[in-house]
Amino acid sequence: MNLFAAFAETVARRRYHPALFWGEAQLAYDWLAQRAAWLARALTRDFAVQRGDRVAVWLKNCPEFPAALFGVWRAGGVVTVINNFLKPEEVAFILADSGARLVITDHSLSEHQAKLAVLRPDVQFLRVEDFAALAEEEAPLPADLNEADLAALLYTSGTTGRPKGAMLTHGNFLANVASCITCLDFQEEDRLLVLLPQFHSFMFTVGTLCPLLKGASVVLVKSVSPFKHVLDDIHHRRATMLPAVPPIHRALAGLPAGVELPSLRLCISGGAPLPMEVLRQFHARFPKLPLIEGYGPTESSPVATVNPLFGTPKAGSVGLPIPGVELSIRDDGGNELPVGATGELCIRGPNVMRGYWNQPEETALVLRDAWLYTGDLGHRDADGFYFITDRKKDMLLVNGINVYPREVEEVIHKFPGVKDAAVIGVPDARRGEQPLAFVVLTDGVTLDEKALHEFVREKLADYKVPRHFRVLPALPRNATGKVLKTALRELAK
């Protein structure tokens, strides 16, 4: 079994069922299958792509994105997914690192393509505007791939240096998709709204592969600005599921009282920690609409945990391990820690990557005894629920005592008028490090720093309290909403 074979089974069942909604267009599974077939033919005939060759996919969200994935897999290639927000120099690095010589892209990135062509004259481009319908029988037979074959290189965000290509197999994705379909109770009649970038692992698996391998539909949002476009697509296409990052759920929680979302049955939060205050506001605004948080790094395909849809979720928790996956909390020596103790989250299961592309040393650091060491700190409670404390590298040491920025951020979020918050550590000659907070205020609000300082001090030990609060118009975030603390550290200098 491989991802294209699984998709072909879905097409045989759901050929004329809508696979994608794109603006006013309704595109059936047959449409998607024909474009994948055309692409597979072009790859093998015109570009001599062979089994195992890396093919870059550099696209904004569009119906051709999944067509490109399944076309590459039909031809036996390995998808190298490229963040469409990257600049040509950054893309050139990924192409060189992966060895991809062909880039599937479109006209909207033509300016970047021209610059990239100068940096990498050996690279060829294939635009999705050239995709055309082709009878299925004219395409080459699907490559004979199995679960152990490499399916994709998903590059990490590279916030601490050069991005690394996580090697994910067909088996990794098939296992993760099967578990997610079970946990989220995917049905063929579901319509999943996708407004986050499809290149990100969260949307790659949950927003693209899960619905299209189940036989459900994807509602692609053309623009999230203004936010009314998102609401229009929810209502017009009767979307039933919304996977998104916390800022989107915050925006939903702030909708006027008269706005309802009757078609939605489930909202899922991932990609970044969900502040408790946002969860509280969401449940107050939509008491009957579940919002459940999950967790997983790119290296685990990516989903590792999710709060139970049927049962009792725990506020502040990222939930329980998904079927077939194990989690463990370990210390720096690799020893498993007891319930309640904080340590590094480790993941083991069929969803864990093979390693980092051409980086055996980096692979050895995170893959040990079949466990993936995530670099995330957290703990497990007596009921088996997992809680994320922070990134290991973001933890502060104040007078030798651990301070977890997320704990401080959660308190700041509760202060009236605070819309967003992030905490970093700055060097301090006396204490080693000192917390520094950046806050974003609701429109029209002026910060009373003394009042905020007292508010936090009432709820946290003195050594955890930021000595200063700096106001920003917005926190720097990556394409999926994760706060870029490296950028904040630059601002703090």
Strand % is: 15-25%
Radius of gyration: 23 Å
Largest sheet: 7 strands, mixed
- In CATH, what is the class of the largest domain? Alpha Beta
> Which CATH architecture of the largest domain is right?
3-Layer(aba) Sandwich
Kindly report how far apart the N and C termini lie: 52 Å
Quaternary state, please? single chain
The H-level CATH homologous superfamily of the largest domain, spelled out, is ANL, N-terminal domain
Class based on secondary structure composition and strand pairing: alpha/beta
Rough outline: globular
Query: What average pLDDT do the residues reach?
Result: 94
Stretches with pLDDT under 50, minimum 5 residues: none
Task: Estimate percent helicity.
Answer: 25-40%
Short account of what is shown:
The chain has helices at residues 3-14, 29-46, 64-74, 88-98, 110-119, 170-183, 201-214, 228-237, 246-253, 276-285, 360-366, 405-413, 449-457, 485-492; strands at 18-22, 25-28, 54-57, 78-81, 102-105, 124-127, 150-155, 165-169, 191-194, 217-220, 241-244, 266-269, 291-295, 305-306, 320-321, 326-330, 343-348, 355-356, 367-368, 371-380, 386-391, 396-398, 401-403, 418-428, 432-441, 468-471.
Key structural traits:
Rossmann fold; five-stranded mixed sheet; seven-stranded mixed sheet; GMP Synthetase, Chain A, domain 3; alpha/beta
